[in-house]
Amino acid sequence: MPVMVDDIMKLLCSISEQRKMKAAVKHSGKGALVTGAVAFVGGLVGGPPGLAVGGAVGGLLGAWMASGEFKSVPQIIMELPPAEQQRLFNEATAIVRHLDWTDAVQLTALVMGSEALQQQLLAMLVTYVTKELRAEVQYGD
């Protein structure tokens, strides 16, 4: 049974695509930096009223920057660096190790036939995306 990283990545893409999973990576550090910078400049330019206006404008701008844009989970999986794909592969392989398969198509068919395996792989994938990538997962369109 040849175990290939690409086969597992294709399987995870199929499962996440079927559930229409998207993820948004939040940029809270950038948002906080922008908020502070705009408030500081407002304070320098306008004194206490400028500080208040700068804080409000900076807060809105920071919140907008921290919201992140959603990308499909299959796209995220395929864009992962090889080391991260290997890590994800190791976790997924632990779940499907008992299956006998020869290629990604057969592996996907076997997993899609088992709701229990799908749920285990989805749970692993959601945990990976939320903890390792610090992203928010959303289902559907």
What would you say about this model in short?
The protein has helices spanning about 5-20, 30-65, 75-80, 80-95, 105-110, 115-130; strands at about 20-25, 70, 135-140. The protein is mainly alpha-helical.
What does this structure look like?
This protein has helices spanning 5-18, 28-66, 73-79, 82-96, 104-112, 115-132; strands spanning 22-25, 70-72, 135-138. With 141 residues, the chain is mainly α. It folds into two domains: 1-25 and 69-141, no CATH class; 27-67. Strands 2-1-3 form a three-stranded antiparallel sheet. Helix 1 (5-18) runs antiparallel to helix 3 and helix 1 crosses helix 5 (104-112). The longest helix has 39 residues, at 28-66. It starts with a helix and ends with a strand. The mean pLDDT is 83.
List the helices and strands and how they pair.
Elements: H1 5-18, E1 22-25, H2 28-66, E2 70-72, H3 73-79, H4 82-96, H5 104-112, H6 115-132, E3 135-138
Antiparallel strand pairs: 1-2, 1-3
Helix pairs in contact: 1-3, 1-4, 1-5, 4-6
Key structural traits:
6 helices; elongated; 141 residues; single chain; 2 domains; 3-stranded antiparallel β-sheet
